[in-house]
Predict the structure.
Amino acid sequence: MKQQRKPKLAVWKFASCDGCQLSLLDCEDELLAVAGEVEIANFPEASRAVARGPYDISLVEGSITTPHDAERIHQVRRASKVLITIGACATAGGIQALRNFKDVREFASIVYANPATIEALAKSTPIADHVFVDFQLRGCPINKYQLLEVLSAYLHGRKPNIPNMSVCVECKQRGIVCGLVTHGPPCLGPVTHAGCGALCPSYHRGCFGCYGPKEAANTGSLSAWWAGKGMTERELLWNYRNFNAYAEAFRKESEAHEE
Amino acid sequence: METIRDVDPMIPKPFRVQQVRQETPDTFTLELVSANGGGDFRFAPGQFNMLYVFGVGEIPISISGNPDARRSLVHTTRAVGTVTKAMRKLRRGGMLGVRGPYGTQWPVEEAEGNDVVFVAGGIGLAPLRPAMYRVLSHREKYGKVVLLYGTRSPSDILYRKELEHWRARFDLEVFVTVDRAQRPWRGNVGVVTNLIPKAPFDPSSVVAMVCGPEVMMRFTVLELEKRGVQHSNIYLSMERNMKCGIGQCGHCQFGPEFVCKDGPVFPYTRIGHLLPKWEI
Amino acid sequence: MERIEYSAIETLLQVLKRRDYVTLAPILREGAIIYDEVENASQLPRAFVDVQAAGSYRVERREDNAYFGHHVGPTTWKKFLFPPLFELFRVIRTASGFRIEGDANSENHDTVPQHKYAFIGVRPCDVQALALNDKVFQNGPYVDRAYKVRRESMFVVAVNCTEAGGTCFCDSMGTGPKANGGYDLCLTELTGDDEGFFLLEVGSERGADVAKELPSRPADPSERERAVEAIQRARTSMGRTLQTDRLREMLADNLDHPEWDNVARRCLTCANCTMVCPTCFCSTVEDVTDLTGATARRVRTWDSCFTLEFSYIHGGSIRSTPKSRYRQWMTHKLSRWVDQFGEYGCVGCGRCITWCPVGIDLTEVARAIRERQHSSITLQEEV
């Protein structure tokens, strides 16, 4: 049975840098194929035109940081058959969730001349804290091939091939020599969700954890090993305070090293 | 069946859906014929095939048809995962890839001369059905034959017409129970293991073939033990994640066993010590 | 046994290349000695040694000029025979269904290279690992034809070990430090005050045919004696030991041992040990479609028993805890493999110890289980 109507795809922006939406634009050649398969009903980075819902697939970028957004996400959910969150902001609160460890009012009083007009929630939280999410695609930013994979999986009714394993598996499959064991820079690969294709390790950089914690991330064991090698509590803390600082495994681990 | 192993064990053969039968709200039976024509599909009761849905994936599903009806392959499955849900959308003429048959078989021939009890839980009736067909087609070679079948609710009962037909036979005892029921169900309520104490078979000679959820099989074995059934006469069919079906992908390991090639049907004596172990 | 000079290594490479082999050998890259294609002997990591410990690897200069003065690195030879990513087939949607194209295992498929591999510098543990790979991929009732095509045409130059690495325990596993068959040619490198040289053993007709082209002279008794001593030195200086007496039974009988909890607290379930293991063979398949849904591909990738997905069946993962996943891996290597294939699945190369980011050592885990088995545990249970 051939579908008569093209599925409607909408992209929604919450507190974010737009980088994940840009990943979709960055698909270039593949974007034409996407456009051929779906009706793009809402895509702020590409066009201001908004087609009415309901939407077959909604991609949600960004975290919830204001009372207004906390309501708006429910509207998006109601209008969406499938809701997929994309990127570290939407899946873990993003870099702006660093404020969750401090008092946001204090920041506002320093930054803004008239802080009373700032309506910000105390915490930056992931979408899944507010509404049901069908699939979470991690990364800061997301990997465009993974995005295409998720879209084609949902369009064709299969499970996306987005494994929850560590970055190490990708690293080893690519034949990259492990920097952790060869005394390179600290690398969060063993506790980080795969998906980037081991991008940083392929440039002899340690993994920054852009894709958030992997399944069953044993951050405590990695920290204990590093502490044994002379890493300070402060360094340990900042290793986990990154784009995914508020993702549970990283949050707990960094808090364990607060003085 | 043409032995796929001569060609390439990982490449499916194209088959077409000849018939779809909705068994229960979430369970359906597909009858498949070769897309390339021909068809002399030999398999042993208890074996499974790997079924491939275009672009979605491949999963192991036991063969539930009559091993002596070689024109087609019959599979009954529940739509619970992405592959089975995609499979449910197939209609007559739809295409599937098939690899197999793989795995071990129920001890149908070894049981000749003995009583036979089939104990099935839920979808577990499907892998047992080929063995029942075989036993019933050589009925004179067996003593008493009993089917004990439990499902969650009356609407989950598989192969209803066939069960009614079997129940009408004088040479086969069929007992069905459901975990929970409302009227008009007037049959047994409770777990399938409740049926074992009174089931009409001779414990000293019966061969038990058991298929269902692992916990159900463990309790079934306990009840059979209480009746005095020999461990060596109990056979179970196991389920594990499988990606290849041919003992190369490693996923289906259960202790020392590869469920795909050393099983899925195991004598209880071979795996009984592993069943109570946690997360094997 | 013949003696060949250092200069004969270049000859060996060129002889193999003339016979259309792709010459794969140790090479220094990214601070580690890995295996890749080499054109000439100058690319070999001469005068380097890898200093290994649990969770630590460092390449340093050697004082002598040895060609093979190193041990085993982060990569394995299996990657050439059982590639990390391998397309099994493609499927094209048609009006009435689909058509399967590209029998990936057939010899004319582009993913099966037409060229032959020569593995140069295979350590005895890795020679045994190849034999174990064979059992999985080509000695059973079902054959991985891509593997078999590559395996049958390849040439193996083994190198006996005269020094043991920091995490090696091949002597415990009976796989080294001297290769026991499974090669076409085998070298023992001897270094000393003077320029080093090799003793050459031939293991096959194919090997004899290549050996004929190498300038050599029969080894004299003192040279043979030196080789025996050097290998013996390696044997007695192993970085690790693993007691294999009743090992299979011991692990199978101690599935509830408290040590599994201890190791699970440290284990990252990152899968590095399985990725670097020369005998780990688990794989999964991915079904990939393009956006239009016109074509699909089925790709086989390396997989690991350390992931949750690995044991997933409807309702959840069978091995939901890190403890059971570690136990699965270790009991498979050191116990179940014997039931399945008649030998241990571990060759004692030590890679899983070196490349574990937190230095978990399976020989220590096995020792802890052995030391506290039965008596104390049985008591606990009885109380």
Summary: Chain C touches chain A at residues 29-32, 34, 55-58, 74-75, 79, 84-85, 265-272, 275-276, 286-293, 301-302, 304, 306-309, 322, 354-355, 357-359 (CB under 8 Å). The first strand of chain C starts at residue 2 and ends at 5. The mean pLDDT of chain C is 92. Residues 247-284+304-382 of chain C form one domain.
